[in-house]
Structure formats: C-alpha cells, structure tokens
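Usage

Read records sequentially. Each one opens with the input sequence:
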Amino acid sequence: MKQSLESKTISPLKELLVEELRDLLHAEGQLVKALPKMAKAAHHPKLKDAFTNHLSQTESHVERLKKVFELLGEKAQPKPCKAMMGLVEEGKETIEEGAEKENFTADLSLIVAAQKVEHYEISGYTSVRNLAHQLGEAAVVTLLEQTLNEERTADTMLGQLSMPLMQNEPGEAGKESRSFRTKAQTA
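and closes with the structure output:
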C-alpha cells in the first residue's frame, strides 16, 4: 500500500511546474480578453495588426498549455495570476490615459505596456521550460519552447514598431515631424 501512495505522490519539481503552468494559463486567458481592447485603442495600423495577430497567437498558447497539461497527466485548471492582473490593469489605465495624448505617444504607451506583459511571459515560459527539461519532459519542453519563441518574437516586433513612432515626436514648434497623426485622424 505504501508504494502505491508514493507512486501517486507528485515530485516537488513537477508540483512547481504544474503550479506555474496554471498561473500562465490564467495569464494567457486574461490576455485573450485584453488584446482586443489594446488593438481598438491603437492608432497606428501596424500596431493594431500586431495586437490582433498576437491575440490569435495567444489563443494558440492557451491550447498549447492545455496540451502540456494533458502530456503531464494534470488538469488544465487556471490559478489566478496576480502579476498579470496587475499588468492588465495597468494596460487599462494606459488606454484611458491615451485618449488625452497625441496618437504616437498613446501608441508608444501601449507598446510599453505590452512589452511589460511580454517580459513577464518570457520569464514565465523560460522557467517552466527549464523545469520541464529538468523533469525529462521532452514533448512538454518542445511545446513550451515554441510559445517562448513566439513571445520573444512579439517583444522584438513591438520594439521595432516603437522606433518609427518615436521619430514622430513634436518638433520645437509643437508640430509633429511626420504625417502619422494626420493620417490616423483621417482614417
């Protein structure tokens, strides 16, 4: 009897892995709700597209996490992710405050908020990938690595989008040096 109880006991590393995966599952679920709002608030067409495309990716991340739970023989049950709740709340504030800013500044603020989220996700996925590797869960590592690479790509792309927006800073006369604001207002 004692041996059968031990075989059902989960190792501390696997327990940590499952706990962190549940945290990420909740985090991704929150982003599925938040990304459409960010896309709607964005002014620049490429930023709108980036948020829309990342929404599709995020939905895939949720499905991939469910597959990871299946591979681990665990229930895909989200655990409230307070860190992401805070980041999403900060994103809501960014959207609200952006209504009173120049379009390029509002978009840059959205990028800052989104990159904070990406950095949190990169950290989380790096950690769970490493735990899965330590546990010898090769199939899980492969799935988590795929998501991690997508999060890194999203972060890089957001950084690249910010560069031309920063060139739109108003000149000394208070007029924007690019036509972005005018184009965005007529669209």
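Summary fields computed downstream for this record:
- The CA atoms of residues 68 and 140 lie 6 Å apart.
- Residues 1-7, 171-187 have pLDDT under 50 and may be disordered.
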